[in-house]
């Protein structure tokens, strides 16, 4: 979706990601999703009187890893208290980094070549979770809420981009790329459905070249789809107001996935006074150069580099192959493809089958050994299996874990005898004289037409290359 | 009452700790109804602990505080034992965990007798701010025992326990020690763990001991001091050796006699400090008269920094997870009703002051400026300590004052802390030791101040004054 | 500055701190806080440009703990102390407004 001519969207994202540590940010309680209510809490994360926070070393390392992956600089940093009353925040203040974040001034390059600046990526603690009773189970209209503090104190890194994105699709691409990076660093499991990543979008519109317009912040978007839809909706709302001669009020807004619209949560005038001040219970965090180097050295390759590596196995990548490589890296299957090619699989086939058939059966990937994959691809490349047959075999191997040769045999997947194919091609040439004429005149695209006809007649049992050979023999 | 050293020695030699507990319980029951020293006496727990100490001694364990009864300020968390901070908002709360300092006392064989009264959330200088009534000064029940650790100081003065723990944010150990005629130590910030100590002002709070004599206070501090991994602000070193240095004396030491730590005090107090200075001089110390004008700014800085931190530390008393709840239409109304009913006037006043000092538009002028004044205080001390080993002055401007004499005007009460506050701002140690008597024959406290980690030297000097006081 | 501390300022601060003040308390606190801040004004008037702020007495850095799980509390130990509990959760009256 795009805005009417003469308008430009300006988007900045704040992304909260939970860190995959064993314990919480400031105490030794387990950091795990889905445990019994209030079973993973202690005096610290319950905010009991007298308790004190002690920083988790691994959380610091994961935060630095995120920073390095986003080309940030790591600097001496401090923790502040953000003071506000809310029942899911047990101390009634949140410990967060404020004016001196651990990471700042980085960037993220998107697959389309655009660059988004990263202003900061800082550490903070998560809140507990409330469930609402009465009403419709939502916060509005509920008459009572129940609070579980298992999530209280789970480490978060908040990654703040510059206002650099110009479309909802670009914002989505940024969020997706960031997710890949967070997974690659080991910082996050990337499970959006479990709330491991949450997005806040700052959206404004302007005439191109004009100063930034008044922005609204849409809070707590928890899927890439919501993110994109909410931004599109919000930008369109701004344009409609402005074209009507109105003014945008700076405010925080809530996105309703069901209604497909945003609504006011809080205006700027209602904004709390958070009374930030330095957290006296914690000391400065100033990672030494040696510590930083150790974390940097342990960083695995990031998705962009892995996509590039994967593309080197095909000589002149098509745009479909570039997309396929993106899917493969997202699914963490790039090593699998590279290994298959190293064992003799055809690169183009490996990429195509992985990004489609394997991607579709990713949940049962354990059933597919590298050897079975390579064998299937080799059967297809040699013409022993047609493409359709190869796909069927792969699907079955994924489902059952069987041997591809045995599956092909059991299904009676044998190549059409060459004389059968020859007879079939002869009859098709006769039935389609115009197409045959054009093919003979050199229009190679018509080969696909005849392959299609053969596949239709044989229910996919033929091999495309053999059909072309037969056509050429008759030319 | 027998000293902690003597009790530990005889229990280690096989005398039953139960005897010590019964002696303490008898002393408590004799005067607690009158003086309101203990908010809670854990008779059952103390007796059980005494049995355990006897068993541990029988097994051959070496316990530095074997069988020594100890009183705990009621802002120290004790698992399963009511911990109130003398506030209605925490009335009846039984913490699910125990403060590190209490764990260390237990490990050393000490026997907690119960929880002592304080100004609500340690905010005050007289215990008149306790929600459960004031503690009376055992030396003159018409007068305050000082505060905020008034109960723990009075427990020593009344002979209920030989040692006790308090906490000192702006003088809350030293001032009541002075007013009750006992020894009180405010240790170097970070020397003693704050884990399980209910926070008033986190960057200033420090737990320390009270005792009837310097040696017992030193021994208690040795037991509770040392690194704790549960407290990020805990100094990395192990507990210092203190008792072994008590006889080091002051010969060859340079002592700053500080004008600003005496100015404004009553003549009897100033005379006691002057006499103490002469004792130190006679024992071989070199006395350097000095002026540190920056110390006078400390009071204003303190009364912004401490309330600012407190306003945040006390936010958690919201009626959700523990303590008092007063119902409201919605959660914010419930928070407000709970806090309004649960906090006393002084706590509200400081929360208000701190909230204001941190709020948008005032932060730089008040809180930010106070942090800079804190730097000036630290620098001024550092400059002084480049010349002298430690400083001497009064602990309080007067002896124990009558009830009600300063409650009308908060500022008059705050001025009582003017000599003690600078050490908290700097994070430095200071000791109050009884020396001389003033109005109505009430005790006077002389204060010894030193740079960070100078406890051993300060206590040796305090021992010199104690010896001289006994010889008089 | 303190001379400008008004009853309205005090009311606003009370709301931030979730305290409800009676009219008498508002008057009293306005007067008392003004007086206390009056003392602070001596300090606020100092030119401390270039003086660093000290929020903490000692300069410890990088105090961290290893990422090792330690036992959580037994639920009974703290739920038994809570004002209102349902389904092992802390129950509160309705929440008006979303978290910031």
Short description:
The complex is a heterotrimer of chains A (475), B (472) and C (100). With 475 residues, chain A is α+β, with helices and mostly antiparallel strands.
Structure characterization notes:
The complex is a heterotrimer of chains A (475), B (472) and C (100). Chain A is elongated and about 85 Å long. Chain A is 39% helix and 19% strand. Chain A has helices spanning 57-69, 168-185, 224-243, 289-297, 303-311, 319-330, 334-342, 347-360, 370-381, 387-400, 404-410, 418-431, 433-440, 446-458, 464-474, and strands at 8-18, 55-56, 73-74, 80-83, 93-96, 103-109, 115-125, 129-133, 144-148, 155-161, 197-206, 216-221, 251-256, 261-267, 277-278. The longest helix of chain A is centred in the middle third of the chain and has 20 residues, at 224-243. Chain A has three domains: 8-297, no CATH class; 303-410; 418-474, Orthogonal Bundle (Arc Repressor Mutant, subunit A). By secondary structure, chain A is of the alpha+beta class. In chain A, the strands form three sheets. Chain A has a nine-stranded mixed sheet, with helices on one face. Chain B has 472 residues and is of the alpha/beta class. Chain B has a domain at 4-245: Amidase signature (AS) enzymes (Alpha-Beta Complex), CATH 3.90.1300.10. Chain B is built from 15 helices and eleven strands. Chain B has helices spanning 4-12, 17-35, 43-58, 100-107, 150-157, 174-180, 214-224, 267-282, 298-313, 331-342, 345-358, 364-385, 410-414, 421-426, 455-471; strands at residues 38-41, 69-73, 111-116, 163-167, 183-186, 207-211, 254-258, 286-290, 390-394, 430-437, 443-449. Chain B has an eleven-stranded mixed sheet, sandwiched between helices. In chain B, helix 2 (17-35) packs antiparallel against helix 3, helix 9 crosses helix 11 (345-358) and helix 9 (298-313) crosses helix 12 (364-385). The mean pLDDT of chain B is 97. Chain C is 37% helix and 9% strand. Chain C has three helices and three strands. Chain C has a two-stranded antiparallel sheet. In chain C, a hairpin with a 2-residue loop joins strand 2 and strand 3. The mean pLDDT of chain C is 90. Classes of the chains: A alpha+beta (475), B alpha/beta (472), C mainly alpha (100). Chains B and C meet through helix 9, helix 10, helix 11, helix 12 and helix 13 of B and helix 1, helix 2 and strand 3 of C.
């Amino acid at each position: 979706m795009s805005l009417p001519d003469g308008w430009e969207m300006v988007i900045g994202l704040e992304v909260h990601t939970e860190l995959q540590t064993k314990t919480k940010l400031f105490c030794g309680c387990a950091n795990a999703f889905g445990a019994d209510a209030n079973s993973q809490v202690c005096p610290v994360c319950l905010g009991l009187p007298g308790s004190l926070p002690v920083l988790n070393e691994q959380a610091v390392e994961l935060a630095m890893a995120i920073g390095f992956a986003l080309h940030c600089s790591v600097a001496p940093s401090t923790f502040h208290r953000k003071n506000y009353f809310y029942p899911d925040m047990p101390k009634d203040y949140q410990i967060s980094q404020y004016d001196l974040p651990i990471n700042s001034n980085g960037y993220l390059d998107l697959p389309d070549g655009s660059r988004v600046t990263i202003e900061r990526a800082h550490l903070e603690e998560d809140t507990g979770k409330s469930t609402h009773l009465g009403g419709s189970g939502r916060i509005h209209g509920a008459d009572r809420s129940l609070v579980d503090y298992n999530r209280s104190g789970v480490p978060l890194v908040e990654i703040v981009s510059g206002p650099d994105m110009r479309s909802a699709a670009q914002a989505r691409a940024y969020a997706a790329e960031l997710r890949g990076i967070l997974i690659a660093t080991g910082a996050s499991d990337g499970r959006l459905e479990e709330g491991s990543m949450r997005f806040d979008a700052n959206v404004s519109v302007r005439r191109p070249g004009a100063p930034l317009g008044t922005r609204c912040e849409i809070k707590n978007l928890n899927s890439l789809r919501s993110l994109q839809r909410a931004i599109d909706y919000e930008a369109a709302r701004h344009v409609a107001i402005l074209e009507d001669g109105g003014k945008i009020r700076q405010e925080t807004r809530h996105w309703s996935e069901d209604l497909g619209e945003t609504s006011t949560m809080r205006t700027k005038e209602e904004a709390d006074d958070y009374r930030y001040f330095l957290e006296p219970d914690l000391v400065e965090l100033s990672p030494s150069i040696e510590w930083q180097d150790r974390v940097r050295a342990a960083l695995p390759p990031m998705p962009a580099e892995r996509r590039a590596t994967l593309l080197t196995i095909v000589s002149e990548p098509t745009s479909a192959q570039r997309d396929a490589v993106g899917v493969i890296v997202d699914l963490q299957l790039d090593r699998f493809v590279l290994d298959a090619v190293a064992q003799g699989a055809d690169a183009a086939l490996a990429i195509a089958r992985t990004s489609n058939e394997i991607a579709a059966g990713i949940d049962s990937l354990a059933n597919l050994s590298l050897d079975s994959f390579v064998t299937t691809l080799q059967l297809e490349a040699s013409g022993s299996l047609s493409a359709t047959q190869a796909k069927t075999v792969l699907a079955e191997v994924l489902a059952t874990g069987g041997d591809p040769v045995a599956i092909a045999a059991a299904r009676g997947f044998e190549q059409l005898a060459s004389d059968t194919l020859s007879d079939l091609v002869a009859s098709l040439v006769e039935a389609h004289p115009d197409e045959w004429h054009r093919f003979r005149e050199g229009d190679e695209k018509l080969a696909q037409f005849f392959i299609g006809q053969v596949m239709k007649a044989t229910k996919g049992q033929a091999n495309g290359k053999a059909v072309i050979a037969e056509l050429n023999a008759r030319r | 009452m027998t000293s902690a050293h003597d009790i530990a020695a005889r229990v280690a030699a096989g005398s039953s700790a139960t005897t010590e507990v019964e002696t303490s319980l008898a002393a408590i029951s004799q005067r607690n109804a009158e003086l309101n020293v203990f908010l809670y006496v854990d008779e059952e727990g103390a007796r059980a602990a005494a049995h355990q100490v006897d068993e541990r001694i029988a097994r051959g364990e070496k316990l530095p505080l074997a069988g020594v009864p100890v009183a705990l300020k009621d802002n120290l968390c004790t698992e399963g034992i009511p911990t109130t901070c003398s506030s209605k908002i925490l009335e009846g709360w039984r913490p699910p965990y125990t403060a590190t300092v209490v764990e260390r006392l237990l490990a050393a064989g000490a026997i907690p007798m119960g929880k002592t009264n304080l100004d609500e959330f340690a905010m005050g200088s007289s215990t008149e701010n306790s929600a459960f009534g004031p503690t009376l000064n055992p030396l003159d029940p018409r007068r305050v025992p000082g505060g905020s650790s008034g109960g723990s100081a009075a427990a020593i003065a009344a002979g209920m326990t030989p040692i006790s723990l308090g906490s000192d944010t702006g003088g809350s150990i030293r001032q009541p020690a002075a007013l009750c005629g006992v020894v009180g130590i405010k240790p170097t910030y970070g020397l003693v763990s704050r884990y399980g100590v209910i926070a008033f002002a986190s960057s200033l709070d420090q737990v320390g001991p009270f005792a009837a004599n310097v040696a017992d206070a030193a021994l208690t501090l040795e037991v509770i001091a040392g690194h704790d991994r549960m407290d990020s602000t805990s100094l990395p070193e192990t507990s210092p050796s203190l008792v072994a240095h008590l006889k080091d004396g002051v010969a060859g030491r340079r002592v700053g006699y500080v004008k600003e730590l005496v100015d404004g005090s009553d003549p009897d107090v100033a005379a006691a400090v002057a006499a103490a200075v002469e004792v130190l001089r006679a024992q071989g110390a070199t006395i350097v008269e000095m002026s540190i004008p920056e110390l006078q700014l400390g009071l204003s800085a303190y009364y912004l920094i401490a309330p600012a931190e407190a306003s945040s530390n006390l936010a958690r008393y919201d009626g959700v997870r523990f303590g008092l709840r007063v119902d409201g239409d919605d959660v914010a109304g419930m928070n407000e009703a709970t806090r309004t009913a649960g906090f006393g006037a002084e706590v509200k006043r400081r929360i208000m002051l701190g909230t204001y000092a941190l709020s948008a538009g005032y932060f730089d002028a008040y809180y930010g400026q106070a942090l800079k004044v804190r730097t000036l205080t630290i620098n001024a001390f550092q400059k002084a300590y480049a010349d002298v080993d430690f400083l001497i002055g009064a602990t309080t401007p007067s002896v124990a004052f009558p009830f009600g004499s300063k409650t009308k005007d908060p500022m008059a009460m705050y001025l009582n802390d003017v000599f003690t506050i600078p050490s908290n701002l700097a994070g430095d140690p200071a000791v109050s030791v009884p020396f001389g008597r003033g109005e109505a024959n009430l005790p006077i406290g002389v204060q010894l101040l030193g740079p960070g980690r100078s406890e051993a030297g300060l206590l040796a000097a305090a021992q010199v004054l104690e010896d001289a006081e006994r010889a008089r | 500055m303190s001379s400008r501390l008004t009853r309205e300022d005090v009311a606003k601060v009370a709301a931030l701190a979730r305290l409800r003040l009676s009219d008498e308390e508002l008057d009293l606190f306005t007067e008392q806080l003004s007086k206390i801040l009056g003392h602070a004004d001596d300090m606020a008037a100092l030119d401390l440009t270039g003086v660093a702020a000290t929020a903490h007495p000692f300069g410890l850095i990088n105090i961290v703990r290893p990422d090792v799980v330690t036992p959580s509390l037994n639920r009974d130990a703290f739920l038994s102390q809570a004002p209102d509990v349902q389904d092992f959760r802390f129950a509160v009256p309705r929440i008006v407004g979303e978290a910031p």
